[in-house]
Amino acid sequence: MKKYAFFCFLIVFGVSSAAFGQTSAVFNAKLYVGNGITMWGTGDIGSQINNAYASSSCPSTGCVIHVITGQYSFSTTIIGTHGVSGKPVLIECDPGTGTNFANSGHTTQLTYTGSGTAVNISIGTTGSGMVGCGLYGPGTATATIGLLVGGSSSSNGTGVLQHFDYNDIANFGTGLEFGYNVYVTHFEGNDIHDNGTATLGHNVYMPSGVTGTGENIHFHGGAITNKSSFFSTSCLEIDNPTDISFSNISFDQCGATFNAVNVFANLTDNHWENPNGATASPFLTVGPASNFVTLNIRDKEWLEDTAGTGRTEFIKIAPNGPNAGITVNIEGGVFVPAENVQQLLNSTGAGCCAVATVSGIENGFGGSVFTNLVGGSWFEIWAPRLKASGTVALAGGGATVSGISPQFSNGSSFNCIGNDLTTGTNPVKVFPASPSSITVVGIGSDTISYICSGH
Predict the structure, then answer these.
(1) pTM of the full predicted structure?
(2) Which residues of 107-127 are buried (b: 16+ CB within 10 A; e: fewer)?
(3) Are the beta carbons of 71 and 99 closer than 8 angstroms?
(4) Who is most buried in 169, 180, 312, 432, counting CB within 10 A?
(5) Looking at the domain that runs over 2-250, which CATH code has it been given?
(6) Whose CA is closest to 286, among 255, 246, 242, 319?
């Protein structure tokens, strides 16, 4: 029993330290790199990982490459073109939180000093991915990508049944970008933050034209944020057909744009907020190239912490296409403006046939509110109906009621009925005159009751 215990101690100690030489860097298809291990060469951590992956120590059935705690600079793209079709690899880093670029991060820090892409996992096989790594770039205004998932072309690499969990990715031009042939892939608990600038780059980006990409992609937990004061509507940008889900994620100072044909997005239990500065920009935008887009938004908070001069909506639908079929379903949630905002959901596009459904939400939280839940141009609206009612005395057979508040979306978005309280058989007509006024026509100086409903 004592020999066995001593033997186990040697193995455990050996795989976490370079003290036992090169043979200590391999244990049961787990390959250890960093912290002075020289079995994979003496180049930067990127070349060491690539050499370990390409070696016979990483069998055709795949391996785990474990990066030991440390701070590493590298300019060699990790995996990338070194990926072998059918050979899975999981890159994992020692756990723990350290101090780095933006006040959150990991004790294992990989700082990229090169150009192009830092890490490209494009193996295309079950189980490949990256877990627990701090990945930091050379600057937010650079044309760098922190993590590229999928192929660099339609015939070079895929990303299928992969997972990327609990990584911290910051200070690149784009934090996470999708390449070609990515589907059924999962992202769990990542903090992807402070990549790109207010007008350049993204935290998460799916560019147009990446064929084979989009089916059943899921983000759960963590944050996609900008910790600085600027607010970017392209912080999360999807420009390619996809069905994609985001759940239980914090979006701080981070707007989302969907700008493609055939997008199906589920946004569930997320937290949206602008805590670090005012903005008039929408939290969510459906862009001009959109057609046949369905957004399902459910529960949690949308908070405008500071009033933004000129804000007209939280969610903006702005397609330009001739048949821009957009469906937005909002179920539950608390939407809190910092000033009275004209509408929660606004359609400004020229395209046909947008449909909105809003139910069970909380409009404001004891202060400012949305004057209308839905505004602009829609083919069909299913939403709580606003009502205006009261009485008015006619003068010469007519009267105008002004100052209806909250007002309706427009003069044709509501209807009214009236009743003559003086002489019940006298005819009465009530017409919308503007979003906030009605015209009442009846007999003489009779008193008329009216009620209007619409949106």
Answers:
(1) 0.82
(2) bbbbbbebeebbbbbbbbbee
(3) no
(4) 169
(5) 2.160.20
(6) 319
